[in-house]
């Protein structure tokens, strides 16, 4: 089981946005879903909405896993992809990812990979740039972000992504396929962020509520791939985000891969002394910050 290391940093730190517009400008455990017969989970015969709204709970039962993310954005004829890779503890909702930004189309030097720590209500970033010392972390309150940190950090928190599925209003079973050699059931549908926020745990609710208000639309089309234990193996979600600087919609496709369930996910959050308290240089933040 993953070991919890979580120390709450001081609230009120300067919120900084990285990811979308920064890039544009430059296997064990698990169980059947509660109340759903095992044969239905395996065959896809159960109600798709019921299956998908229980996906987050199945991840908690799984404990932890490795994760890979890809976030593709398109605006004004420009298309970029940000990639991340790491581990996640679904019990304590802590993750650690290394995030690689795409090459700057202007030919400027590439940004160093970011280290991102995901925690309930907070995002920690190292190698942030924008005047932040290399040995310091930046802490962002996710509920203060207009997207609830579904896209701001350049990766989508795997657990929060699964919680979005609690807002599934329409869904259909597409059929069986494979993801990374694992047999899965493919579902396609649409989730509503405001509806998801009403049923999400308290530490996720505020982030989803912020996203419901901050995105161009609260509806999130998705493709979800679940294994025979009801665990998400792949989730592709499509968001419509508003670029704070240009006020133009940005098409965002976030793909999350989950694999090697049971992998230890040890996440040590930075102590207070390592969190940057100074002013962040202005950049093209997604919310106009």
Could you characterize the architecture of this molecule?
This protein has 289 residues and is α+β, with helices and mostly antiparallel strands. The chain has a single domain (13-266), classed as outer membrane lipoprotein receptor (LolB), chain A (Clam). It has seven helices and 13 strands. The protein has an eleven-stranded antiparallel β-sheet. Strands 1-13 form a two-stranded parallel ribbon. A hairpin with a 2-residue loop joins strand 5 and strand 6 (122-126). The chain is globular. It starts with a strand and ends in a 21-residue tail after the last strand. The relative contact order is 0.24. The model is unreliable at 1-38 and 282-289 (pLDDT under 50).
Tell me the layout of helices and strands:
Blueprint: E1 4-5, H1 20-25, H2 38-43, H3 48-53, H4 55-62, E2 64-75, E3 78-89, E4 94-100, E5 114-119, E6 122-126, E7 137-141, H5 158-164, E8 168-179, E9 182-192, H6 193-199, H7 202-214, E10 219-226, E11 232-242, E12 249-259, E13 267-268
Parallel strand pairs: 1-13
Antiparallel strand pairs: 2-3, 2-12, 3-4, 4-5, 5-6, 6-7, 8-9, 9-10, 10-11, 11-12
Helix pairs in contact: 6-7
Question: What are the defining features of this structure?
Answer:
disordered C terminus; disordered N terminus; outer membrane lipoprotein receptor (LolB), chain A; two-stranded parallel sheet; globular; alpha+beta; 289 residues; 18% helix; 11-stranded antiparallel sheet
How far apart the termini lie comes to 39 Å
How many strands appear in the DSSP assignment?
A: 13
Total individual domains = 1
Second-tier CATH architecture: Clam
Q: Give the uncertain stretches in residue-range form.
A: 1-38, 282-289
Order of helices and strands: EHHHHEEEEEEHEEHHEEEE
Mass-distribution shape: globular
Number of helices: 7
Biggest pleated sheet: 11 strands, antiparallel
What is the highest CATH level, the class? Mainly Beta
The secondary structure category is: alpha+beta
Radius of gyration: 18 Å
**What name does CATH use for the topology?**
outer membrane lipoprotein receptor (LolB), chain A
What is the average per-residue confidence, as pLDDT, rounded to a whole number?
80
**Strand order in the sheet with the most strands:** 7-6-5-4-3-2-12-11-10-9-8
Helix content: 10-25%
% residues in beta strands: 35-45%
């Amino acid at each position: 089981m993953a070991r919890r290391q979580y120390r709450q940093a001081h609230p009120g730190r300067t919120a900084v946005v990285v990811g979308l517009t920064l890039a544009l400008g430059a296997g064990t455990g698990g169980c059947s879903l509660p109340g759903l017969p095992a044969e239905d989970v395996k065959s896809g015969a159960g109600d798709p909405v019921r299956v998908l709204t229980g996906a987050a709970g199945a991840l908690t039962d799984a404990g932890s896993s490795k994760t890979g993310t890809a976030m593709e954005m398109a605006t004004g004829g420009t298309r970029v992809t940000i990639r991340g890779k790491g581990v996640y503890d679904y019990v304590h909702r802590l993750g650690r990812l290394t995030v690689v930004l795409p090459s700057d189309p202007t030919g400027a030097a590439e940004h160093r990979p970011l280290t991102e720590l995901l925690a309930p209500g907070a995002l920690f970033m190292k190698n942030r740039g924008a005047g932040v010392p290399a040995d310091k972390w930046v802490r962002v309150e996710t509920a203060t972000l207009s997207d609830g940190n579904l896209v701001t950090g350049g990766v989508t928190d795997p657990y929060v992504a699964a919680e979005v599925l609690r807002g599934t209003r329409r869904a259909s079973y597409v059929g069986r396929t494979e993801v990374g050699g694992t047999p899965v059931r493919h579902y396609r549908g649409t989730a509503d962020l405001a509806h998801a926020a009403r049923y999400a745990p308290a530490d996720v609710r505020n982030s989803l509520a912020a996203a419901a208000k901050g995105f161009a639309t609260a509806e999130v089309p998705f493709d979800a791939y679940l294994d025979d234990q009801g665990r998400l193996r792949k989730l592709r979600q499509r968001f419509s985000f508003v670029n704070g600087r240009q006020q133009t919609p940005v098409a965002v496709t976030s793909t999350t891969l989950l694999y090697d369930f049971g992998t230890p996910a040890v996440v040590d959050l930075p102590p207070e002394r390592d969190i940057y308290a100074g002013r962040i240089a202005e950049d093209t933040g997604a919310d106009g910050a």
